[in-house]
Amino acid sequence: MADGLKHHILSSPRHGGYSSARQEQYGQYLRKLHADFLETWNEKSPDNSKLSDFLKQTVLGTGAFGVVILTKHIDTGKYYAMKMLEKEKIVKLKQIEHSYYEKKILCGLNFPFCVYMKYFFKDNVYLYYILPFVPGGEMFSHLRKLGKFDEMSSRFYGAQVILALEYLHACELVYRDLKPENILIDRAGYIKLTDFGFCKLIRGRTWTLCGTPEYLAPEIILSKGYGMSVDWWSLGILLFEMSAGYPPFYASDPMRIYEKVVSGKYRIPSHFSMELKDLIGRVVQIDTTRRFGNLKNGVLDLKNHKWFRDIDWDSLLNYRIPAPFQPKIRSPGDTTYFENFDDEKIKESPVCLYEEEFADF
Fold it and tell me: Membrane-spanning regions, if any (predicted)?
């Protein structure tokens, strides 16, 4: 009886909370953003730049399909992150469809806590996604450096992730790759979700097994068919990892991780507050009919949870809350917060490779 009462107290909103009326008003704003997104989605956006418009500076990161390079737009002097995806690698790894959707999604995104496509073009060898340069680097680097975040920082970042996921879901997009490596910190200390390679427009369910093992929801692993619920599960994993310094389910072998995820058993660190324990228990919840974010009240259950009682959601959206950490950026192209990578050898070809496969891009 006492436990039941405790749960009720922890999950009930503070006096006032984020009301249904405010949520309905915010929902109207999201519906407008959804309409804008669909308008972009349904039109073919042509190449709007070319490689000679940019000066390559330094490598920011490397991945399975190519490299991300800091680049400077010659005409405007602005810095961007240029994601160069090698067509041959995309074809070999059977990722043409994912790359196509990532391009379409990035072109349509318009939200403070998500990156977006500024320019797009392709040449004989590569696809080029030109994105804003986010100078604070990956959350992952800051988390590893500090070991773990205090709960105030986890709350600040977690609340922005909730708003970003709420926006994506309003646009009928499931993200499927939430993790500290895919969260960038901007110059104000706020977040930007990046890497939309696994993001997908869905109306109903999807069955694809994709994502990062430690962050996969059980319904993905069990091939049950799933929807937006998987992103709320991964929010719980992120809140845990930010506050503990490690995820709740981990092992050296991915199959062992999957077993642990499906069992749903994990140990909560003793330093977690009662409110954080309660919140994680409600999102890292195997039963999707009981998982916060996925219930009748939707995102309101999260916004009104006691752990978030100090968050002014409207002020957060408008960058009016001071960030717990603000990167010291000395110049517009400062890469202090990124690892040093060797220069990548850029490939060339006299003929256009895989022209047919990438005709729709």
Answer: none
